Each structure stands twice: as C-alpha cells, then as structure tokens.
Amino acid sequence: MPSPKRKLVMKSTKKTTPEILNDDLDVVLDHDKSKVECLCPKCGKKHIMNFHWIGRGTPRKYCQSCRDSI
Q1: Rounded to two decimals, what is the model's pTM?
Q2: Phi then psi dihedrals of residue 66, to 5 deg
Q3: Rounded CA separation 43/62 (Å)
Q4: d(CA 29, CA 33)
Q5: Domain residues of the chain, as ranges?
Q6: 33-50 pLDDT, tens digit each
Q7: Residue 48: C-alpha distances to residues 35, 39, 43, 54, 63 (Å)
Q8: Can you list the alpha helix ranges (DSSP code H) found in 1-70?
C-alpha cells in the first residue's frame, strides 16, 4: 500500500515506463526480525533463531551443532 506522500506524487505526475521502474527501486521494505522457534531437520531438536519469518508452520532450520557438522 503506497504512503500518502507517494499517492500524491503518483496522482500529480504522469510518468513514462522507465521512470516508474526507477522510482519503484526507492521503496524501502520493512524487514523486521524476531525470535522464531525452529525445528532442525537433521536431529529434530527445537531451537530459537532470530530472523524474518512470515510463513506458515514451523520453519526447518539446522541447529548450530548440526550446521557445524555439515
């Protein structure tokens, strides 16, 4: 959803395709990281990692001990 300022700019100016593409690169995405409980696919151990997760269910991430042994 565009911000109010962006909506105003979009309404007030008529742009060509390359300018629209260049302008879209300026959009800042919000990547909030949080603590997520994960399940190791190798040993089945539950552990907590800090990363951005919006998926459904429990993420499968290797625990530190399994990651070191790979």
Answers
A1: 0.52
A2: -70, -35
A3: 8
A4: 13
A5: 4-69
A6: 899 999 999 999 999 999
A7: 6, 9, 15, 15, 9
A8: 4-12, 17-24, 64-69
